[in-house]
Design a protein that fits this description.
Strand content: 5-15%
Keywords: Cytoplasmic vesicle, Membrane, Protein transport, SH3 domain, Transport
Number of strands: 12
Family: Belongs to the sorting nexin family.
Number of helices: 14
Structural class: alpha+beta
Main location: membrane
Membrane topology: Peripheral membrane protein
Order of helices and strands: EEEEEEHHHHEEEEEHHHHEHHHHHH
Helix content: 40-55%
Organism: Balaenoptera acutorostrata
Distance between the termini: 72 Å
Largest sheet: 6 strands, antiparallel
Strand order of the largest sheet: 4-3-2-1-5-6
Radius of gyration: 29 Å
């Protein structure tokens, strides 16, 4: 008997992509339960066949009736079927088998009752658009955290970097390194795992797909892709993130001498990264539609051309996502890594969406190329310069086995500067925290105001001008009906005035794309940057607290006086890294805002001169 399934969420098929449009509550027949990549093939009551996301349906019992109390999703049913088979094989007695069946039935009921919409690792229903607010503000968690809350009874607790372990579970920063841009792509396994190019749906506005839907959380990208039920990677997945975390760096008897060194020098404005003698950018262009699974699934591939080599490589969005994850895992403790533009289920092959995504991928790559540490890193260079598939896979696996990640990235840094005392270190950390928090508030305020202005310029305001224009033309028509010959010039003038107002309506509606768009994009990008700082600051404050506690540890012979000196020196290295990053941040901030505000004002002047 054919397997039936009930649709749990509406799903709109992508035209030309062999998908099937289904509606919540609809019963479909499953013709192929495992097409691959989280999809199944189904047939609706009209006989139409196509692909449907696996997590959008639940298997119905064999009798065809929908029993809410024990309905399981396809994924759950497959797991229970395999578990039932292995259990039956291991337990030959009928009584034991019956007990296992009862247990499985109970598990199915429990899972059905507790079932929630799919996470961001699978297609999910459309989420509502949220305005910019502080309701999901990562800074609130950072400000509320206390240094002593995460310590173990012996005063030397095993705490992950930052203070994410004690944050409220409603906060998006609670897992995966506690980072606001926590990676939500596929696990690093087989290369075939990259083949999905969809995620949570987005808002309909072409210019606020990210900024409207995710303002509450931190870009995402954004940052944390706020508002979505998301899968985040566990800390112990990567070396350097496992407990005891910060102590791994501070108390290491002797730090290994890595091949890669990140020097920090003192320049005119304080500590700074060493910039390469020649810089480069990367041009993202030529998006092309490709296919897989014998044409059943499609994706967009982009051409990347570094300006220093002029040799192009091709990457899909999933490859960008992989790079983002590796950079976040390796450098996220010291350098803010802004998130990528979000994914979406429907409309991902539309020209407007492809254009917007390519523009934001270009901005992201340019930002990475401008960073002296990121741009020179092995993983970034390999992403841009691999020559064939074998070289790509070799470099990919090497990057995934890198042990110098998390707080251990500080072990590669060598400040060419005198040691700092703890008081100065703490002052520098507090100053960075104060500025980045204030700038975060200012950026969010401008995003809110800009978003409201955009809506007004593209909605109510043009309509008002159109109403005035039509009213004037209607009046001219009435005047013309009088038959009085002496008013022809007046009627023509009123008609032209009405047409002018209609033209003004079009100009007003189009103007935000010429000026406000770029200002909003710049602010949205910096909002992603600033959302990374609470956990970076939290890691520094955690290290400072450990050094403060070191006297007690020396007194109880848990560490030696030399260990304490090493701790102070290593916290000093962290401080120099933070100052170097802030100098890079400030130089880019001044350049970016100078450029975007100048463009905005010039476009505004041209707009008003048009009238």
């Amino acid at each position: 008997m054919a397997t039936k399934a009930r649709v749990m969420y509406d799903f709109a098929a992508e035209p030309g992509n062999n998908e099937l449009t289904v509606n919540e509550g609809e019963i479909i027949t499953i013709t192929n339960p495992d097409v691959g990549g989280g999809w199944l093939e189904g047939r609706n009551s009209k006989g139409e066949r196509g692909l449907v996301p696996t997590d959008y349906v639940e298997i119905l019992p064999s009798d065809g009736k929908d029993q809410f109390s024990c309905g399981n999703s396809v994924a759950d049913q497959a797991f229970l079927d395999s578990l039932s088979a292995s259990t039956a094989q291991a337990n030959s007695s009928a009584a034991s088998s019956n007990n296992q069946v009862d247990i499985l039935a109970q598990i199915g009921c429990i899972e059905s009752l507790s079932q929630s919409p799919p996470s961001s690792s699978s297609p999910s229903p459309s989420s509502s658009i949220n305005k910019v607010s502080s309701g999901n503000d990562p800074w609130s968690a950072w400000n509320a955290s206390k240094s002593g809350n995460w310590e173990s009874p012996d005063g030397w607790g095993a705490k992950p970097e930052g203070t994410a372990a004690q944050r409220n579970t409603s906060n998006n920063w609670d897992t995966a390194f506690g980072h606001p841009q926590a990676y939500q792509g596929p696990a690093t396994g087989d290369d075939d795992d990259w083949d999905e190019d969809w995620d949570e749906p987005k808002a309909s506005s072409p210019y606020f797909k990210d900024s409207e839907a995710t303002e509450a959380g931190g870009a995402p990208r954004g940052g944390s892709r706020a508002g979505a039920s998301s899968m985040k990677l566990p800390l112990n997945k990567f070396p350097g993130f496992a407990k005891p975390g910060m102590e791994q760096y501070l108390l290491a008897k002797q730090l290994a001498k890595p091949k890669e060194k990140i020097p920090i020098i003192v320049g005119d404005y304080g500590p700074m990264w060493v910039y390469p003698t020649s810089t480069f950018d990367c041009v993202v262009a030529d998006p092309r539609k490709g296919s897989k699974m014998y044409g059943l699934k499609s994706y967009i591939e982009y051409q990347l051309t570094p300006t220093n080599t002029n040799r192009s490589v091709n990457h899909r969005y999933k490859h960008f996502d992989w790079l983002y994850e590796r950079l976040l895992v390796k450098f996220g403790s010291a350098i803010p890594i802004p998130s990528l533009p979000d994914k979406q289920v429907t409309g991902r092959f539309e020209e407007e969406f492809i254009k917007m995504r390519m523009e934001r991928l270009q901005a992201w790559m340019t930002r990475m190329c401008r960073h002296p540490v990121i741009s020179e890193s092995e993983v970034f260079q390999q992403f841009l310069n691999f020559r064939d598939e074998k070289e790509w896979k070799t470099g990919k696996r090497k990057a995934e086995k890198d042990e110098l990640v998390g707080v251990m990235i500080f072990s590669t840094m060598e400040p060419e500067a005198p040691d700092l005392d703890l008081v100065e270190i703490e002052q520098k950390c507090d100053a960075v925290g104060k500025f980045t928090k204030a700038m975060d508030d200012g950026v969010k305020e401008l995003l809110t105001v800009g978003q409201e202005h955009w809506k007004r310029c593209t909605g109510p305001l043009p309509k008002e001008y159109q109403k005035i224009g039509k009213a004037l033309q209607s009046l001219a028509t009435v005047f013309s009906s009088s038959g009085y010959q002496g008013e022809t010039d007046l009627n023509d003038a009123i008609t032209e005035a009405g047409k002018t107002y209609e033209e003004i309506a079009s100009l007003v509606a189009e103007q935000p794309k010429k000026d406000l768009h770029f200002l909003m994009e710049c602010n949205h990008e910096y909002k992603g940057f600033l959302g990374c700082f609470p956990d970076i600051i939290g890691a520094h404050k955690g290290a400072i607290e450990k050094v403060k506690e070191s006297d007690k540890l020396v007194a109880t012979s848990k560490i030696t006086p030399q260990d304490k000196q090493n701790m102070v020196k290593r916290v000093g290295t962290m401080s120099y890294a933070l100052q170097a990053e802030m100098n890079h941040f400030h130089s880019n901030r001044i350049y970016d805002y100078n450029s975007v505000i100048r463009l905005y004002l010039e476009q505004q002047v041209q707009f008003y001169e048009t009238f």
